[in-house]
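Request: Mind sharing a record?
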Amino acid sequence: MLPTAMALTPTVAIVGRPNVGKSTLFNRLVGKRQAIVHDLPGVTRDRITALVKLSEERSFQLIDTGGLMLAEDDPLGLSTQVFLAVEESDLLLLVVDGKQGLVSADEAVWERFRRYGKPAILVVNKGDTREARDRFTEFYGLGIDQQLLLSAEHGTGIEDLREALALTLPEIPDVPTPDAPPIAIVGRPNVGKSSLLNKISGQPRSLVSPVAGTTRDPVDTLITRDGKSYLLIDTAGIRRRSQTSGQPEELAVMMARRAIERSQVGVLVIDASQGITSGDLAIAGTIWELGRAAVVAINKWDLLDEEKREKLEFQMQRVDELLASPGRVNVSALTGRGVEKLWKPIDRALEAYHTRLSTGQLNRFFEKAIERVSPPALHHHPWKLYYSTQVSTAPPTFMLFANRPLPRNHTYRRYLENRLREELDLPGVPVRLVVRKRTE
């Protein structure tokens, strides 16, 4: 069965021309800094979504969009994402800059949106300034009945907007959100992450472009497949700080790392035509450092000849070392070949990530492991394990009580971790051992 995207209703889209404060308003309504805010026009490129509560019983999905631009000024096709957001929305929040007053660009933008026949609220932003208060009446020329003056940056007028939303939106009771583990799709810029997400979800959910660094904000897509739900997170390409071009991309790198932090599984997308690069290894290290399970998707595998495939297989040994032999699938995000096969290692990684053992099972395992390889002597005294217990999952974490701690990089600690991973079949899943000193 193909995965299907799950829509939360009602849905509100924040729209307008570039650099009028749409992302600031989005963050204010969401209550956290989820969308990138910058003075440079065009920073927001994809549709960013979040669930906003109006009350204990009511909520709505809010979509932040990039500024609508004319076709000749839009080589990446960014406006396509804006129109997709408008189509799936029940209500539009048209944001304008109150300090500048009504300009021709606002009229042109509203003329494009008016054709969809969606109800709208006009948000006159920067309402904490005298210019905005003086120019407020100019915007009635757009013909939008509901018009509010507010300051997204300082929060004044936000309660009035929330009240207007409550009165305008249909009263649809909350539907319980399915248990959807977050899966972060990560990788270097321009390796096919957004194309892969679009193939998985079956819709143009993320902006796809051959221009490196097109995706900046994390994009969440809730899908179901065979009765299971997943939250797929498309992220900005991760580069070393020295290779980032300007502050917006630096912010994107930071937010991509945050996406890995809130995921359970990181799907590392590697461009087969470029081989395994230091950037790929750095991202693999980040997934492991943050304690997330890993799956590897080798994109553009179909473009390689036999010699290049052998070279890539040799390079993959380093990735396997970093990520403890994660599940791997060779795919083509362009044609969709192999994409369906990703689900098996993803499901396996999720299951392994939440592995739990009873204390009895765990202690019997360590007894056998210690019988197989005797513990070392530390400071002329043999290391002795008294007992162990599992303290958490995601990733599996075990507390060992011994006569003395084991150094973090000690070979015997690595031996015990590897034996656990082999015994429990945990490919690509970190295992954490916490060794505490306790007297007998």
User: Anything to note?
Assistant: DSSP finds twelve helices and 18 strands in the chain. Residues 1-8, 36-45, 206-216, 244-253 have pLDDT under 50 and may be disordered. The first strand starts at residue 4 and ends at 5. Residues 88 and 312 are 42 Å apart (CA to CA).
